[in-house]
């Protein structure tokens, strides 16, 4: 297997002199919006960030988003939990699918990315809400640091048959 899934890595160091363009961000966001969602509810919004002060503020606020100091961009995935029945409550799965699409599209574009969780940590939600002026009931779901990789992390995951039960 030589797929985008196998090539995807959490990149935590980026080349400072390689900006991410608006066209590249649009392509990543288009990929996100192609993700499946419960009843096609699409309970998400996105904040695309290239402002250096905001990227540094993310790193200063989120304890596991230090890579934003070298990232050229970030995408904040914002969940819309207020989407009603019958899809109510499925926003974490839907936003996670959108996030994974961004990560895979980044690989296809030769970019690196790192998913930094925000939801369900109440303190991180409050900090990102304040940093980006996100009103309730919207919920900051995650931050994805994006840029040109300045490292090649090694492969971490692999198939583990012991974690699979086959019912034949």
**Structural category:** alpha+beta
Hey, roughly how much beta strand do the residues contain? 15-25%
Alpha carbon gap, first and last residue: 25 Å
- Average pLDDT rating: 95
In spatial order, strands of the major sheet run: 1-2-4-3
Helix content: 25-40%
Helical stretch count? 5
Uncertain residue segments: none
Major sheet size, sense and barrel closure = 4 strands, antiparallel
Outline type:
globular
Q: What is the strand tally?
A: 4
In N-to-C order, the SSE pattern is HHEHEHEHE
Q: How is the secondary structure organized here?
A:
Elements: H1 4-7, H2 22-33, E1 44-49, H3 52-61, E2 73-79, H4 91-108, E3 112-117, H5 122-132, E4 139-147
Antiparallel strand pairs: 1-2, 2-4, 3-4
Helix pairs in contact: 2-4, 3-5
General description of the model:
The chain is of the alpha+beta class and 168 residues long. The chain is built from 5 helices and 4 strands. The chain has a 4-stranded antiparallel sheet with strand order 1-2-4-3, sandwiched between helices. The radius of gyration is 16 Å and the shape is globular. 32% of the residues are buried.
Salient structural properties:
single chain, 168 residues, alpha+beta, 4-stranded antiparallel beta sheet, 5 helices, 33% helix, globular
Summarize the structure.
The chain has helices spanning 4-7, 22-33, 52-61, 91-108, 122-132, and strands at residues 44-49, 73-79, 112-117, 139-147. With 168 residues, the chain is of the alpha+beta class.
